[in-house]
């Protein structure tokens, strides 16, 4: 191997920025690749060179290996880092990179192949003495529950839990069909299902010459729909003997395939028996790698580059993480997604993304702090073509309790305007007694009572109304010196109404604005300072620009939490009205299936069509029985709010 001078990052967003940051520190030039949809994102400007990847389908742009290899050739890159997702675990891509004479920053194609098939991986792990879950060839009722899994799967696709033996064949068929659709490979297998399990993984780095470094374990049990939400290091509540055994098993797994680069060996841990079983090995960097870096004082991307250049992990002791198995600090990471409480991806312009932090894409600075790794910045457009993650927010501190408290504080103080996110849910998870106990399982979120989104108090509603008034006044082109809402003859108060809330009544005076029961100390389009019952509240916010056919929104951060309030217009434009029973698109996306024919009858709850956005599918169902009129076709792109179909009830009443 030779020294890397210019590296192409075959990925986008947050992970591209992460790799670029380490390369900049090491003096390595970088090349970014981007689709048209990503041209304005920060990582493109941060690289030394950027290459547009042509294509009419942005979702597939980063999957075209030939375009990426050609971009490396055109820009003089001598190495390729795949990041995670996309082509990062594609052995054919790794071979294409190496065939082009470039350094592949990752494991050998043979290692990727070996771990790419869950069936083959389990065979190798059994031979290496790593514990695996095994189902009998002829399962009986006593073996239930069982889990059907796709051999080439991930992210919960092609996975089915079987609790009745009679359902096994049907669930195998369903898993096989989903696996073919998602991965092009319908191979599935069956294993025992552990009801109360934790997801614990071990970070390893190998040099491909027999040297394997075990860099601690992480807990990733807090998941929804088999997607990780919260990760932390070290894994809480594990006995020392269990941790030692996990580390030893991970080392054997990496040695069995002469592993090179950073990888993660994932285990299913049964807290009732203190036993663990091999799940899979991710032959790449993981999204949650920052918690390990912050706890172990190591740059995993630097280690990847080190071994890719031919370095070893035995002689180069300066690159080894801090000594000792038990870390001196704890780190917790949350994934901030653009999605609502029902996990529906959101899109639009980020009016503000402001999270106070001490570090970004780098090591810990001091004994405690906040790190933010984000692919977006304020003003960026969040589309529907890619994963909905906006940022990773990570706290580190001497103890788990301190790290969690810091993380909650950072999330609560963050200004995130323009797009609905899962920020409130993350705070609820971190504050939940089950999470505090460290006894969460992979299915905990399915039944956890996390409450609802923050509800605005009176100060928040008044502040939002006054910010709207101040925003209106600031946009006037005439009589700018007249206070907002001022009238020569006062007959009644102004009324500002928000969807789902009582209207706010306020008066325009010569000295500003007045609200009954509230002392208005200061107002502007972006903040208000109010006193109610002797308590002064400082509220910050952002008023969205008016759009045709859409209500104005006020994003408000106050003592009661962060909320988005939608203004109820005084008059409704008839052009904006829709027919009763209209089914509207909940987000921009692509119609991937129309389940009913135009003019046919449907029952309440029937699936009318399926939308796909940000790699997730969402069923649009009939709210009542009736006759359906379909307005879209399969493959059609739709915008949020578009009328997809109309269900007319037999009596002609709204559906």
Q: Quickly count the helices.
A: 16
Total number of strands: 36
Q: Which sheet architecture does the biggest sheet show?
A: 8 strands, antiparallel
CATH architecture of the largest domain: 2-Layer Sandwich
| Cα shape | globular
Which sequence of strands runs across the widest sheet? Answer: 13-12-9-10-11-14-19-17
Query: Mind telling me the CATH class of the largest domain?
Result: Alpha Beta
Report how far the terminal alpha carbons are from each other. Answer: 67 Å
Molecular structure report:
By secondary structure, the protein is α+β, with helices and mostly antiparallel strands. The protein folds into five domains: 6-105, Rossmann fold; 136-192, ATP-grasp fold, A domain (Dna Ligase, domain 1); 198-447, 2-Layer Sandwich (D-amino Acid Aminotransferase, Chain A, domain 1), CATH 3.30.470.20; 458-566, Glycoprotein, Type 4 Pilin (2-Layer Sandwich), CATH 3.30.700; 578-648, Beta Barrel (OB fold (Dihydrolipoamide Acetyltransferase, E2P)), CATH 2.40.50.100. Helices cover 24% and strands 30% of the residues. α5 (91-99) runs antiparallel to α6 (109-116) and α12 runs antiparallel to α13 (423-431). It starts with 5 loop residues before the first strand and ends in a 7-residue tail after the last strand.
């Amino acid at each position: 191997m030779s020294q890397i001078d210019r590296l192409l990052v075959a990925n986008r967003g947050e992970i591209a920025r992460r790799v670029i940051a380490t390369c900049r520190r090491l003096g390595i030039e970088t090349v970014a690749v981007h689709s048209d949809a990503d041209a304005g994102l920060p990582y493109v400007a941060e690289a030394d060179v950027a290459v547009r990847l042509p294509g009419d389908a942005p979702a597939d742009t980063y999957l075209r290996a030939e375009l990426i290899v050609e971009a490396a050739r055109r820009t003089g890159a001598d190495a390729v880092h795949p990041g995670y997702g996309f082509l990062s675990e594609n052995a054919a891509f790794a071979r294409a990179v190496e065939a082009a004479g470039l350094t592949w920053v990752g494991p050998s194609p043979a290692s990727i192949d070996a771990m790419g098939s869950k069936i083959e991986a389990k065979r190798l792990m059994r031979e290496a003495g790593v514990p695996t879950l095994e189902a009998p060839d002829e399962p009986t009722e006593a073996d239930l529950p069982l889990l059907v899994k796709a051999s080439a799967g991930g992210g919960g696709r092609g996975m089915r839990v079987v609790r009745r033996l009679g359902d096994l064949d049907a669930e195998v068929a369903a898993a096989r069909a989903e696996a073919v659709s998602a991965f092009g490979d319908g191979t599935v297998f069956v294993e025992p299902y552990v009801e109360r399990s934790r997801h614990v993984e071990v970070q390893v780095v190998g040099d491909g010459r027999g040297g394997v470094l075990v860099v601690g374990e992480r807990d990733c049990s807090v998941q929804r729909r088999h997607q990780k939400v919260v990760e932390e290091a070290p894994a809480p509540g594990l006995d020392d003997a269990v941790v030692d055994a996990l580390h030893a098993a991970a080392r054997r797994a990496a040695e069995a395939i002469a592993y090179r680069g950073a990888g993660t060996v994932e285990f299913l841990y049964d807290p009732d028996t203190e036993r663990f079983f091999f799940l899979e090995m991710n032959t790449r960097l993981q999204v949650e790698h920052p918690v390990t870096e912050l706890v172990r004082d190591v740059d995993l991307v630097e280690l990847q580059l080190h071994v890719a250049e031919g370095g070893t992990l035995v002689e180069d002791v300066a690159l080894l993480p801090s000594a000792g198995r038990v870390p001196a600090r704890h780190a917790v990471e949350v994934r901030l997604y653009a999605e609502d409480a029902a996990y529906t991806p959101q899109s639009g312009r980020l009016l503000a993304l402001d999270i106070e932090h001490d570090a970004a894409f780098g090591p810990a600075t001091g004994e405690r702090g906040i790190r933010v790794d984000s692919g977006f910045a304020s003003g960026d457009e969040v589309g529907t073509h890619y994963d909905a993650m906006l940022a990773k927010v990570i706290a580190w501190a001497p103890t788990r309790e301190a790290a969690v408290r810091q993380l909650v504080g950072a999330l609560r103080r963050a200004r995130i305007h323009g797009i609905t996110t899962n920020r409130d849910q993350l705070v609820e998870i971190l504050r939940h007694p089950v999470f505090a106990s460290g006894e969460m399982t992979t299915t905990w979120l399915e039944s956890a009572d996390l409450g609802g989104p923050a509800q605005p108090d009176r100060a928040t509603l008044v502040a939002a109304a006054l910010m709207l008034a101040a925003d209106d006044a600031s946009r006037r082109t005439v009589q700018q010196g007249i206070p907002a809402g001022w009238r020569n003859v006062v007959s009644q108060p102004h009324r500002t109404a928000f969807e789902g809330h009582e209207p706010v009544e306020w008066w325009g005076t010569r000295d500003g604005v007045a609200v009954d029961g509230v002392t208005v100390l200061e107002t502007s389009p972006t903040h208000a300072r109010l006193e109610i019952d002797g308590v002064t509240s400082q509220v910050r916010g952002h008023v969205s620009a008016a759009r045709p056919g859409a209500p104005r929104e006020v994003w408000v951060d106050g003592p009661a939490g962060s909320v988005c309030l939608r203004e109820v217009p005084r008059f409704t434009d008839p052009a904006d009205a829709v027919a009763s029973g209209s089914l509207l698109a909940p987000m921009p996306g692509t119609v991937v299936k129309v389940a009913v024919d135009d003019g046919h009858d449907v029952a309440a709850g029937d699936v009318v069509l399926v939308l796909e956005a940000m790699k997730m599918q969402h069923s649009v169902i009939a709210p009542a029985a009736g006759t359906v009129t379909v307005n879209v076709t399969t493959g059609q792109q739709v915008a949020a709010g578009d009328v997809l179909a109309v269900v007319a009830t037999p009596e002609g009443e709204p559906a």
